[in-house]
Design goal:
Radius of gyration: 20 Å
Shape: globular
Largest sheet: 9 strands, mixed
Number of strands: 9
Helix content: 25-40%
Strand content: 5-15%
Number of helices: 13
């Protein structure tokens, strides 16, 4: 299988040459917005009430089937990737193995993947994920030692137990002669010797290990997410972030991505935990109708016209400028070329 870090190079198209898309390249579905970790670099560690804290929960199988039905009835090419993760730990939802099975069996996407912290990836769960044919499992590790792991995650989960879970998954794949799922294990670049400790610890139990670049979430007044993780290395991390950023005007996500929250809310953004970019709900509007709606068009138009400051979430976000996380640009795309894909104003 192709390495997770190489997927963005496969069959890549120049986005401005194929817009507007008949359907998104990427759809994210959130099995759970709950998490058993409280990582210092993540909004899950925030204590203040917010849209996110007030809407936490697991997606029901009924709602998940509704989303799959809407994707299945949407004519046109398959979506490129269905990601069964947004803001929480997917395996907190006890129905996740069935969610994965249904997602793969539906055939709506070229590949189906998840991201997990690995702590709940027990052998019994891994057996089901292998049987389901899930394509990729990305595992986020945030400490190369037990001490650092506890400091970052706010959890006393044993780091070796996570490694043992991945070793068990590897054994199940070998026993069943399965390449699926491809396991890609990553951590944030620490700019320290901890990088090598992490790589050596997880190489034997993963198909790929790599270092992620620093990034921040949507800014909130009470927290600097980068500082929370890097501490004394914050200046170096922010310098690295700046060095690997471009001065884009528009975010490409609204043109390529749909994210369905556990409560059914739909957004063109996978980092907006405060809910400012919610444009509809699957219980009221189908994903196809929403993608081709005036609401979606007006949101795209706002970005192309450099009016991001009008949205409370976009105004506080800069992740779209990261060359590491954002490979496309839509700057300069003519707004009028979007009009054929949306109904007229009434």
């Amino acid at each position: 299988m192709i390495k997770y870090t190489e997927l963005h190079k496969t069959n890549r198209q120049n986005l401005v040459e194929v817009l507007p898309l008949q359907k998104p390249f990427t759809v994210l579905i959130e099995p759970s917005s709950l998490c058993n970790f409280r990582c210092v670099q993540c909004f899950q560690s925030l204590k203040e009430k917010s849209y996110f804290s007030e809407t936490k929960g697991n997606m029901s199988l009924e709602r998940f089937r509704l989303v799959l039905d809407q994707l299945s009835s949407w004519t046109g090419p398959k979506i490129k990737v269905l990601k069964l993760t947004i803001y929480g730990e997917p395996l907190v939802n006890p129905d996740f193995p069935e969610i994965a099975r249904l997602a793969v069996a539906s055939g709506v996407a070229e590949r189906v993947e998840m991201t997990t912290n690995g702590s709940l990836l027990k052998p019994s769960v891994s057996e089901q994920l292998v049987a389901a044919g899930l394509d990729y499992v990305r595992v986020s590790i945030y400490g190369a030692t037990q001490e650092k792991h506890e400091e970052v995650t706010g959890s006393r989960t044993n780091l070796e137990a996570i490694r043992d879970n991945l070793a068990a998954l590897r054994e199940i794949k070998l026993r069943t002669s399965s390449e699926h799922p491809f396991v890609s294990c990553k951590t944030l670049d620490t700019f320290s010797a901890d990088n090598e400790v992490f790589l050596e610890l997880f190489k034997p139990v993963a198909d790929e290990v790599y270092l992620d670049k620093p990034h921040g979430w949507i800014r909130v007044e009470e927290k600097d997410f980068i500082e929370g993780y890097y501490g004394e290395a914050t200046a170096r991390a922010k310098q690295d972030l700046l060095a690997n950023s471009s001065r884009r005007t528009a975010c490409p996500m609204p043109f390529t991505t749909m994210a369905v929250r556990a409560n059914g809310d739909v957004s063109p953004c996978c980092v907006d935990f405060i809910g400012g970019t919610n444009l509809g709900n699957v219980g009221r509007t189908s994903l196809c109708d929403l993608w081709h709606s005036q609401e979606w068009y007006q949101f795209q138009k706002m970005h192309l016209e450099n009016r991001m400051r009008e949205n409370p979430s976009c105004a506080r976000c800069e992740i779209y400028r990261s060359n590491h996380y954002t490979k496309d640009t839509v700057d300069g795309f003519p707004v009028e070329r979007l009009l054929g894909a949306v109904p007229p104003l009434t």
